[in-house]
Amino acid sequence: MMKTLFLQPPSFDGFDGGAGSRYQAKREIRSFWFPTWLAQPAALIPGSKLIDAPPAGLAMADVLPHAREAELVIIHTSTPSFANDVKVAERIKAENPGVKIGFIGAKVAVQAQESLERAAPVDFVARNEFDFTIKEIAEGRDFAEVDGISYRDGAGAIVHNKDRTILEDMDSLPFVTDVYKRDLKIEDYFIGYLMHPYVSLYTGRGCKSRCTFCLWPQTVGGHRYRTRSVEHVIAEVRQIKADFPQMRELFFDDDTFTDNLPRAEAIARELGKLGVTWSCNAKANVPRDTLKILRDNGLRLLLVGYESGNQQILHNIKKGMRIEVAKKFTRDCHDLGIKIHGTFILGLPGETQETIRETIEFAKEINPHTIQVSLAAPYPGTFLYDQAVENGWLDIANAELIDDHGIQIAPLHYPHLTHTEIFDSVETFYKKFYFRAPKIAAIVNEMIRSPQMMKRRLREGVEFFQFLRERHAA
């Protein structure tokens, strides 16, 4: 087995490369997701090491000693971080010319040829699901024998092997918890709406929804929800409890954990027996009866993608959600005491100044506990990307989706709505949602009741205003 280093490279200060879907960027409040997509193949390779540089505050000088000793380096990349990741690969190759370097992630999964052409030090990229692909390479197999990769042969020509068969037996994957315990410090990972410290993992891959903007289902995970067995999930939860007694919340990072309601209820009942406080991603259509079962068995918060308050925009992006259903779902959550972190996207096809105002009013009406407002990001491999290129909504200058500081830009524009108008609407959205007397009173009350929450909200406030200053300076 080759000595293998899995690396989330040093990047912009505060850059969350581990985030899934459309969020690889510096965010308004410093946040870091667990690098689960790296930890999963790392768990398959004995003696491997995982370095997640951004949350650990590591620079290249900290990473290079480990890279010098490695025979294989696997780097997780994305469209926003690709240029930086290639520079990291160049540094590693200069220090260790004999090392094999591979890139994984949605970016290279859908743009294998282009990625290799732009990344001279990279020997191969892994397409689609890459867990067992990387394991086979680490075992020393010839590149020509490994399904699911594109690589440079001995003459430097780029070769594309056949696709790897999609993984069906999700229980065949080992626990990522072993890698978390071995290589990560869970206190380094912080999400504003989750209790700290938290731990996140996947119980399945794929999403039945067809949202045109969402990255992973369209590039790697697919649109079938392939799941681990309830028993397999609960066994890992037991290990997490044992390995991380300081954990205050467990987050299931499946694209839509509630895609399979009977399974979600079954997992919840087992979590209830273990006394675990947990949260998950959900669509805004979960029936009240199911919500009650989840709440009664430890569910604290749902992360819900509302995206827009305009029904036509939801149709445009194939969200498959009715505004009235979402409102009822949200009322049910409020009644049951389930907190919601609502996410919204500005700049989707069909957006106007009027629909932006409509979405802000919708958010104020349903009143999630917290919100996140993102800019529509057309990642390569998504329907939205193809649509934007075809219609001239995306300029090449904005195709990396972030600016020189790692802050998300507004890459799309329309004849009736400019980049600047979309970009500025994010700040307007936050201010109109949070700077309301009832919301301010609720936040102050929360802070008074919890010294830990007071410390947390004050820190978040400082970070938020610093983020706004950086946006204005960009």
TrEMBL record:
UniProt-listed SUPFAM superfamilies: Radical SAM enzymes (SSF102114)
Cofactor(s) listed in the protein's UniProt record: [4Fe-4S] cluster
PANTHER family: ANAEROBIC MAGNESIUM-PROTOPORPHYRIN IX MONOMETHYL ESTER CYCLASE-RELATED, SLR0320 PROTEIN
Pfam family, one: Radical_SAM
Source superkingdom: Bacteria
Domain Radical SAM core: start-end pairs: 193-412
Stretches that traverse the bilayer: none
Organism, as annotated: Acidiphilium iwatense
Stated name of the protein: Hopanoid biosynthesis associated radical SAM protein HpnJ
